[in-house]
Write a structure and sequence with these properties.
Blueprint: E1 4-5, H1 16-22, H2 24-27, H3 38-58, E2 65-68, H4 71-86, E3 91-95, H5 100-111, E4 115-119, H6 129-135, E5 140-143, H7 157-166, E6 170-174, E7 193-197, E8 208-212, H8 227-230, H9 238-276, E9 280-282, E10 293-298, H10 303-312, E11 315-316, H11 332-336, E12 347-351, H12 358-378
Parallel strand pairs: 1-11, 3-4, 3-5, 5-6, 6-7
Antiparallel strand pairs: 2-8, 7-8, 9-10, 10-12
Length: 391
């Protein structure tokens, strides 16, 4: 059976060009870039070129790039490193719909005595910018995602950055989901720290980056050696860094065409679902979202059941963040948006990539209505059923 993969916000296929860029560092260019001999120096020069490409991708300076193992490490480094540097006199402002890699460090800091504010969103997943402005002052660390991983809603990061600049607040953004989907320019949108993860845009799992604006203050999370200008200890993962650099190059060069392709496929999928499946709602701001992401709620049935039935047909989707896939609770993002109780459990996410096709969209639209109708026939809930409460 062919696999139709619509779970690209969880992870993506490694691009063939990325794999090709990595292989020499497993075979011939295996030296340690910190070694004093000429072979190590050669690897260090390759590392410098990769750092330049990654910096170019977000319009940063190369020395502002720190390579990490993943965005979770980057998020923890930014949030906990800033809190450790500035101490408890600072407030931490975030949102109720952040990825667990942001929410959990913030809640840990709250348990340790820090003041932490989680701002709500409206029914379309949008941040109340006036409430944000009121919450931020000069003694604030802000961590707000650039785009939501479940709904694709894009936050107004330019305005968020402007407010933080006006109030002299420190701004970190989890930009994991925007990489390769919308342009990121840290000079135009002056965030202080930014996290990305390679496996969200066709690099391998196990490599991420943390951008730290020159002059921004934090205490390193990983201690030990002098690597990454003594800001992240540990021997650099050169093969994966080379892969990340190649993924950045591919995304930078192909973004405009890819956005058109993804938007067309997402819109066809959305229109087909709305036309073929009754009692369904689209979650999130449909006018301001990522081109590849569609989150919908099917009333009176469970999203997990939909995902399992589609999986049997070779179609891979998710019910929320992959990091929370072991939980049977409704998505914290969908709950924060106030989705009605008849639909909150029936939320699923389709997330596309450049490797998807319109034929795959049509295959999903052919199979999905039967899955939804079959589950509703088995469900005791919904219109015309004897049981009318759905919790």
């Amino acid at each position: 059976m062919k696999t139709v993969y619509f779970d690209n916000n969880a992870t993506t296929k490694v691009a063939p060009e990325v794999l090709d860029a990595m292989l020499p560092y497993f075979r011939d260019l295996y030296g340690n870039p910190s070694s004093m001999h000429s072979f190590g120096g050669e690897i260090a020069r390759h590392l410098d070129r990769a750092r330049e490409e990654v910096a170019h991708f977000i319009n940063a300076d190369p020395e502002e790039i720190i390579f990490t193992s993943c965005a979770t490490e980057s998020d923890n480094t930014a949030i906990r490193g800033c809190a450790e540097y500035y101490g408890r006199e600072l407030k931490i402002v975030t949102t109720a719909v952040e990825h667990p890699a942001v929410l959990q460090p913030c809640r840990r800091l709250k348990a340790l005595g820090h003041c932490v504010v989680e701002l709500p969103v409206d029914s379309a997943g949008r941040l109340d910018i006036d409430a944000f402005r009121e919450a931020v002052d000069e003694h604030t660390i802000v961590s707000v995602m650039w785009a939501n991983n479940e709904t694709g809603v894009i936050f107004p990061m330019d305005e968020i950055a402007r407010i933080c600049r006006e109030k002299n607040a420190v701004l970190h953004t989890d930009a994991v989901q925007v990489a390769g989907k919308i342009p990121v320019d840290v000079k135009r949108v002056p965030v202080d720290m930014l996290s990305m993860s390679g496996h969200k845009f066709h690099a391998p799992r196990g490599i991420g980056l943390l951008y730290v604006r020159s002059g921004a203050k934090f205490k390193p999370f990983m201690l030990g050696g002098h690597q990454e200008r003594s800001r992240r200890a540990g021997t650099e993962n050169v093969p994966y860094i080379a892969g990340l650099a190649k993924a950045c190059e591919l995304a930078r060069r192909g973004m405009a065409g890819e956005v058109r392709q993804l938007t067309a496929m997402r819109d066809r999928l959305e229109a087909g679902i709305l036309a073929k499946c009754p009692d369904v709602r689209v979650n999130g701001d449909r006018a301001n979202r990522l081109p590849n992401t569609l989150n919908v709620s099917f009333e009176y049935i469970e999203g997990e059941a939909i995902a399992y039935r589609l999986s049997d047909l070779g179609i891979c989707i998710s019910t929320g963040s992959a990091c929370a896939s072991g939980s049977l609770d409704p998505s914290h993002v969908i709950r924060a948006m106030g989705v009605p109780f008849t639909a909150v459990h029936g939320s699923v996410r389709f997330s596309l990539s450049r490797y998807n096709t319109m034929d795959e969209i049509d295959y999903a639209l052919d199979k999905l209505p039967g899955v939804v109708n079959g589950l509703r026939e088995l469900s005791p809930f919904g219109p015309g059923k004897n049981v009318t409460t759905f919790k």
